[in-house]
Design a protein that fits this description.
There is one protein chain. The chain has about 350 residues and is mostly helical. The protein has helices spanning about 5, 20-35, 45-70, 90-100, 105-130, 145-150, 155, 165-195, 200-245, 265-270, 280-290, 305-320, 325-340, and strands at about 295, 300. The chain is built from 13 helices and two strands, in the order αααααααααααββαα. It has a two-stranded antiparallel sheet with strand order 1-2.
C-alpha cells in the first residue's frame, strides 16, 4: 500500500497520463470546502456545477482505490500507511456532496445514496477501530427495509409512547459527539498550517488525517440521524400523494348545439347559421325598379303630379313655338303680372 502513490500515475491506453489519485482527492476535497463555506444559495448554478465536478473527481478516486485494494478487513489501523489514511474520507465526502444536490423529484434517491456512503464510511472506521463509537441501529437503516414496509403506513407511524430513557440516552450521546467534534476541530486548527506548509513530520501528518477521520465520524452519525428523519417525511408525503383523491376537473357549461346544413331544405328550416347573403346584384336591382317605374330622381320619388306638370309645360312651349295667339297672350299676361308682383307674393298670407 505504500506504493499506492507510485501506481496511481499510470498512463491511459490512449497514451495520455491518467490523473493521480492524490490529485483527484485533493481537487474533490477542495471543491467540497468551497461549496460548504460559500454564501451562495445551494440551488445556484455555480454551486451545483462545483458539486457535480467534485462528485466526479471523488468517484474516480474511489474506483482507483478499489483497483489498488488500499484497505482490507484483515489489517489494523497501524498497517495503513500515512499517505493512504486520507482516502478513508472518500465515502464521507461523497455522502456530504450527494446531500447538496438539488432536485426535488430525486430528493429521496439522494438521501438513500448519501446514507449508503456514510454507513460505508462508518463501517470501515469501525473495522479499523479508529475511535470508539456506536453504529446507527439496523432498524434505522431504511435502505435495508423491504419496499413493502417502506410504504406501509403502519411501519411509518411512530410509536405512540416514546421511550424516554432512549431519548435521554440519544441526547447525551449527541452532546458527547458535539464536544468531541469541537475538541477535534481545535486540534486540527493547531496543526493545519504546519501540515499544509509541508514542514510537518510523518507523525504530525498521520495525526492530522486521523483527526479528520474522527471529525467526519461524528458528522456522519449526525447526518444519518437527519437523513432518517427526512426520508421518513419524504415517504409519508409520497404515500399521502398516492392515497389522496385526485381533484376532478372543473365542469364546463353545456355547449349550445349547432347544425350544419347539408341541403336547401335544411337551410330553409334551420337557416345558414350566419347573416343572409345578397340575393341580387346592383344591376339586377336597378333593372327591376326601372320596370316597376319607381326609380328615384336625385333622391326625390317621381309622382304622377310631376308628370302632368311637365306635360303641360311642354305643351305651352310647343304652342309658343307655333305662334298660337292664345298661348302668346297668356305668356305676355304672366310676364306683366310678374313685373308688378314680387316672387312669393301669394305665399305671404296677407302680411304685406
Amino acid at each position: 500500500m505504500a506504493a499506492a502513490e507510485d501506481d496511481n500515475s499510470k498512463q491511459n491506453p490512449s497514451g495520455s497520463e491518467a490523473p493521480r489519485l492524490s490529485d483527484l482527492l485533493d481537487r474533490g476535497w477542495k471543491l467540497f470546502e468551497e461549496v460548504d463555506t460559500t454564501n451562495e444559495p445551494s440551488s445556484s448554478t455555480a454551486v451545483q456545477v462545483k458539486v457535480k465536478r467534485a462528485i466526479m473527481q471523488l468517484e474516480e478516486a474511489t474506483r482507483m482505490v478499489n483497483q489498488l485494494v488500499l484497505f482490507s478487513h484483515n489489517e489494523a489501523l497501524e498497517e495503513i500507511s500515512t499517505a493512504d489514511l486520507k482516502y478513508l474520507l472518500l465515502p464521507a465526502l461523497l455522502g456530504a456532496l450527494t446531500m447538496k444536490q438539488v432536485n426535488p423529484s430525486k430528493r429521496l434517491e439522494y438521501m438513500q445514496a448519501a446514507r449508503i456512503y456514510f454507513m460505508d464510511f462508518l463501517q470501515r472506521c469501525k473495522d479499523y477501530d479508529v475511535c470508539s463509537f456506536q453504529l446507527p441501529r439496523a432498524s434505522e437503516n431504511t435502505a435495508d427495509t423491504p419496499p413493502e414496509e417502506q410504504t406501509n403506513p403502519a411501519v411509518l407511524m411512530p410509536a405512540s409512547q416514546p421511550d424516554l430513557i432512549a431519548m435521554a440516552t440519544q441526547r447525551q450521546a449527541k452532546i458527547e459527539r458535539f464536544m468531541q467534534r469541537k475538541e477535534t476541530e481545535a486540534k486540527l486548527s493547531e496543526i493545519r498550517g504546519l501540515v499544509e506548509s509541508g514542514l510537518a513530520d510523518e507523525e504530525v501528518v498521520r495525526e492530522f488525517y486521523l483527526l479528520h477521520v474522527r471529525r467526519w465520524i461524528t458528522l456522519a452519525i449526525e447526518e444519518i440521524d437527519s437523513i432518517n428523519q427526512e426520508m421518513e417525511i419524504l415517504k409519508r408525503m409520497e404515500l399521502f400523494k398516492q392515497s389522496a383523491p385526485q381533484p376532478s376537473p372543473p365542469k364546463r357549461p353545456p355547449m349550445k348545439p349547432f347544425i350544419l346544413t347539408k341541403d336547401a331544405v335544411q337551410a330553409k328550416v334551420f337557416g345558414a347559421g350566419y347573416p343572409s347573403l345578397s340575393t341580387m346584384t346592383v344591376d339586377e336591382w336597378y333593372d327591376q325598379h326601372q320596370r316597376q317605374g319607381c326609380l328615384p330622381d336625385q333622391g326625390i320619388p317621381r309622382s304622377a303630379d310631376v308628370d302632368i306638370e311637365e306635360d303641360e309645360r311642354a305643351e305651352r312651349e310647343r304652342k309658343e313655338e307655333n305662334d298660337d295667339e292664345e298661348a302668346l297672350q297668356k305668356a305676355r299676361d304672366w310676364d306683366d303680372w310678374k313685373d308688378t308682383h314680387r316672387r312669393g307674393y301669394g305665399n305671404r298670407k296677407n302680411m304685406g
